[in-house]
Specification:
Blueprint: H1 3-6, E1 16-18, H2 54-64, E2 69-74, H3 81-88, E3 92-98, H4 102-113, H5 115-123, H6 129-137, H7 143-156, H8 186-201, E4 205-209, H9 213-223, E5 229-233, H10 241-244, H11 251-262, E6 268-273, H12 276-288, E7 305-313, E8 318-326
Parallel strand pairs: 1-7, 2-3, 2-5, 3-4, 5-6
Antiparallel strand pairs: 6-8, 7-8
Helix pairs in contact: 4-5, 4-7, 5-7, 5-8, 11-12
The structure holds S-adenosylmethionine.
S-adenosylmethionine binds near residues 81 and 101.
């Protein structure tokens, strides 16, 4: 039985969520012959990376369906922070990773299917400003070259930003206390890559795709429509996305995404940087799809919960607000405050 059938239930009222930043939950023991670690961080430092939302997802999955979930889909993969944890903790069986950025796609493809090649390239990397300029000017043509360029530039550029305007860590003159190689922990990166390679050889990566969100959803719905599944959509930021990602979203793309999601019956979760316009957008879109617009809860159709997920941005030392919209019926009460 798929997750989709387990997710039918009474709608909860709109609630506010606060994320707990405690230890990640210990995964239930399962029989798998592997030396894998039950937790896994992404090798990519990603702007907007959602590692801090992991405890929320763990509880959301447990509350709304049986774990392990057969299939988790990230159509905006980036650093795949949530997918990697759920896989490593055996809370999902398989994931689909898709991203429109050719460098990000190349990275995931090689990390999964040509792991040792990428490991060799990272081990041999000359982590210098010259190499940064070489790769920035020309990330290469093959998947191998692009994967290496993606990982190198991600770990040596300011905030992990691959977008063209981001400079090298330590600046062009390298006069800062933090030099270009200060985030390039080769041993740790290689360890994470090998964990990903192990997951791929255990058949835990259902697909890695270089496709836009619309194509990804269409493909998954054709290929896996009998499979219990949950989509996690983490699109480029509403505001300033074009400064962070090589593939960003304009107003039109945000509207198209709203239309796609309000028409999608399979379970999904969407996270955004908080803006009131997004709520208006989803309310209007739900209305266009024939759902009641007053509370985003349609009769007989997918239920849309408007929730505020507050989580702490450790680097800046202050809270950040994340908007979560989902058609799942239940929200984990342990993360809820101010209902
Ligand atoms: C906010 S980031 C995702 C971060 C990710 N959740 C993480 O934890 O690291 C958004 C990603 O969407 C990708 N992207 C932008 N436009 C896209 C599109 N139309 N279809 C698929 N991916 C897209 C960007 O390349 C970027 O990697």
């Amino acid at each position: 039985m798929g997750l989709a059938t387990n997710l039918v239930g009474p709608a909860d009222p709109e609630v506010q969520l606060t994320i707990n930043l405690g230890e990640l939950p210990t995964p239930a023991p399962r029989e798998r012959k592997t030396t894998r670690n039950p937790d896994l961080h992404s090798p990519l430092r990603y702007p907007g990376g959602k590692r801090q939302l992991v405890p929320f997802f763990v509880d959301l999955l447990k509350l709304n369906g049986r774990t392990p979930l057969p299939l988790f889909i990230e159509p905006f993969t980036g650093g795949a922070a949530v997918s990697l944890h759920l896989l490593a903790a055996d809370l999902v069986d398989q994931v689909v990773l898709a991203d429109l950025d050719p460098l990000v796609y190349a990275f995931w493809h090689q990390a999964c299917y040509q792991t040792e090649q990428l490991v060799d390239d990272i081990a041999a990397a000359d982590v210098t400003l010259e190499e940064w300029h070489r790769l920035r000017a020309n990330p290469g043509r093959t998947l191998r070259e692009k994967a290496y360029a993606c990982l190198f530039l991600n770990r040596t550029s300011y905030s992990g930003i691959l977008q063209g305007r981001a400079g090298p860590i330590g600046g062009q003159k390298q006069q800062s206390a933090y030099k270009i190689d200060c985030r390039f922990y080769k041993d740790e990166i290689i360890y994470r890559l090998r964990q990903i390679g192990q997951l791929a050889s255990d058949n835990r990566i259902a697909a890695v795709r270089r496709t836009g969100v619309q194509t990804t959803v269409k493909w998954v719905e054709e290929q896996f429509n009998e499979v219990g599944r949950l989509y996690y959509f983490d699109p480029p930021f509403w505001e300033k996305g074009e400064r962070l990602y090589r593939k960003a979203f304009g107003r039109r793309e945000h509207e198209q995404l709203a239309s796609l999601l309000t028409g999608l019956e399979a379970p999904w979760v969407l996270s955004y940087d908080y803006h009131d316009e997004i709520i208006d957008l989803y309310r209007e879109s739900a209305q266009n799809e024939g759902h009641e617009a007053s509370d985003l809860v349609p009769a007989g159709g997918p239920r849309l919960h408007k929730t505020d997920l507050l989580y702490c941005n450790r680097h800046k030392g202050r809270g950040a607000t994340e908007l979560i919209i989902t058609n799942l019926p239940h929200l984990p009460q342990e993360h809820v405050s101010g209902a």
